[in-house]
C-alpha cells in the first residue's frame, strides 16, 4: 500500500484554493507529518516566549521539573523525560551557572537538584507561560477531549519509542487494527 492511497483528499481535490506551493502534498494529513509541523510551530512559539526570560524551552522545562520536585536527581529526570542523562548535563550546568538551581545533599553520594531563590522567582512566570501555551493549544477543547488528546499523544510517543519492536502491518498485509491492509 502506498502512503498516498491512505491520505485525505488534498485541498485541490476538495476544490479549495491553495497558497503558493504544490497543489498536492502527499504528506498532508498523515500523522507523522502533521505532528512534525505542529512540533515545529510549538518549538518556535516556545523559543520566543521563553527567550523573553533568557531560557530555551528545554531549560524552562527543566526548571519546572526541578521546581516541582526539589531534591530530584539527574537520573530521575532522565527517566521521567525519557532522555539520556548525558543530554541533561549542559541544561543543568547552564541553569546552575545562571543561579536558578543548585545541587543539594541527596541520598548517600548522590546529589539532588533544587531551585534557588532566583529560580523560584522565575518559576511562577515560567509556569504561567506553560499554562498560557497549553490554553492556546487546546483552549477550544472541553476537558474530556483534551484528556483524550493527551492520551493519544502519549500513545503515539510510546509507539514511536518502540517502533522497531512493533510488527509491520504493511508487510503482514494487516492494518494495526487487524483488518486487511
From TrEMBL:
Transmembrane segments: none annotated. It comes from Novosphingobium piscinae. GO terms for molecular function: DNA-binding transcription factor activity. This is MarR family transcriptional regulator. Residues 1-26 are annotated as: Disordered. Residues 28-158 form the HTH marR-type domain. GO terms for biological process: response to stress. InterPro entries: HTH_MarR-typ, MarR/SlyA-like, WH-like_DNA-bd_sf, WH_DNA-bd_sf.
Amino acid at each position: 500500500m502506498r502512503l498516498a492511497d491512505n491520505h485525505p483528499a488534498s485541498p485541490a481535490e476538495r476544490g479549495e484554493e491553495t497558497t503558493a506551493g504544490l497543489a498536492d502534498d502527499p504528506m498532508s494529513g498523515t500523522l507523522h507529518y502533521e505532528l512534525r509541523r505542529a512540533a515545529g510551530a510549538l518549538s518556535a512559539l516556545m523559543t520566543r516566549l521563553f527567550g523573553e526570560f533568557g531560557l530555551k524551552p528545554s531549560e524552562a522545562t527543566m526548571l519546572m521539573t526541578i521546581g516541582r520536585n526539589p531534591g530530584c536527581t539527574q537520573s530521575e529526570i532522565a527517566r521521567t523525560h525519557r532522555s539520556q542523562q548525558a543530554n541533561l548535563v549542559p541544561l543543568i550546568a547552564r541553569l546552575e551557572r545562571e543561579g536558578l538551581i543548585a545541587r543539594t545533599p541527596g541520598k548517600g553520594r548522590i546529589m539532588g537538584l533544587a531551585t534557588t531563590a532566583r529560580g523560584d522567582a522565575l518559576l511562577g512566570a515560567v509556569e504561567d507561560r506553560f499554562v498560557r501555551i497549553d490554553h492556546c493549544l487546546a483552549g477550544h477543547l472541553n476537558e474530556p477531549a483534551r484528556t483524550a488528546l493527551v492520551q493519544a499523544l502519549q500513545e503515539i510517543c510510546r509507539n514511536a519509542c518502540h517502533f522497531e519492536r512493533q510488527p509491520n502491518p504493511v508487510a503482514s498485509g494487516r492494518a494495526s487494527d487487524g483488518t486487511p491492509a
